[in-house]
Specification:
Rossmann fold, about 40% helix, about 20% strand, globular, binds ligand GEK
């Protein structure tokens, strides 16, 4: 990715009097690549496997969607791995700053597979003819009441045999397990250079914005939306990635 995407995330390094809710604005977009790699255990693995999974499940004449595509990491991985030309990729994100940089990042990446980027709320998109749908760390930012409808719409827009990849930060019913994974996540951030102040200020900024749910809640909702063969293919502490099939 271009150099401007590689700036170091120091957004919460200085003490802030009143922490505002986290938003995906220009400031976040410009440090996002560094931020997500140092904040989400397993992010690189999930991104590279997104491409590999898409390679297996893409069907000729269909569309692969990356919903909440940010800077295009999932799109680039799919472009790298998919071996048919008979498909296209649609990336959706409601942050104009993210879509702008995503457009830059993907513009020279493929002459074989067309990429269409849409700046919109994923809840307003009508999916169709999808063989692959990716929700990598996006559902967690969608208001709880909208999540079931979104998954139903995705299911409806998929072709039989289509694959959904759903990656999320999760919470645990058992309090000791919750504490262990939360602390291990903070250790992960510490070892990647975040200070205790950065960790606690970012946590406060995300409190009302990133709403994790349990694995059981995700499984149940996916089933109710119509998906089957629901499987956790990756977990590192409180971060999971799930595959589900139509
Ligand atoms: C990656 N998948 O690099 N509609 C559209 N986009 C949204 C919405 C919405 N309602 N809400 C949030 N977003 C990416 C990482 S980041 C995850 C995804 C994170 C977008 C938001 O603008 C942001 O770009 C993305 O979802 C979430 O693999 O920051 O932890």
């Amino acid at each position: 990715m271009p150099r401007e995407n590689n700036s170091k995330d120091r957004l919460y390094a200085e003490p802030v009097e009143k922490i505002q809710d986290f938003v995906f604005d220009q400031k976040v977009a410009s440090v996002f690549q560094d931020m997500i790699r140092r904040s989400v255990p397993g992010y690189s693995t999930i991104i590279s496997m997104t491409g590999l999974l898409a390679r297996r499940f893409v069907q000729p004449g269909t569309i692969c969607y990356d919903l909440g595509c940010s800077l295009g990491a999932g799109i680039l991985s799919m472009l790298k791995c998919i071996d048919t030309d008979q498909c296209s990729i649609v990336g959706v994100d409601n942050s104009p700053a993210m879509i702008k940089q995503c457009r830059e990042n993907t513009k020279f990446s493929s002459e074989r597979i067309p990429v269409h980027l849409i700046c919109a709320d994923v809840n307003d998109i009508i999916l169709g003819n999808a063989s692959v749908a990716v929700l990598n760390f996006t559902l967690q930012f969608i208001p709880l009441v909208q999540r079931a409808t979104l998954l139903k719409n995705i299911y409806e827009g998929m072709v039989p045999g289509g694959l959904l990849i759903l990656s999320e930060k999760i919470k645990f019913e058992d309090q000791r397990t919750e504490k262990m994974h939360r602390e291990m996540h903070h250790d992960f951030k510490r070892i990647h250079g975040y200070s205790d102040l950065e960790i606690s200020q970012k946590r406060a900024a995300l409190e009302r914005v990133l709403l994790p749910e349990t694995l059981n809640t995700h499984r149940k909702r996916l089933k109710e939306a119509g998906f089957s063969s629901i499987s956790v293919w990756f977990q590192c502490f409180n971060f999971v990635s799930i595959t589900a099939l139509k």
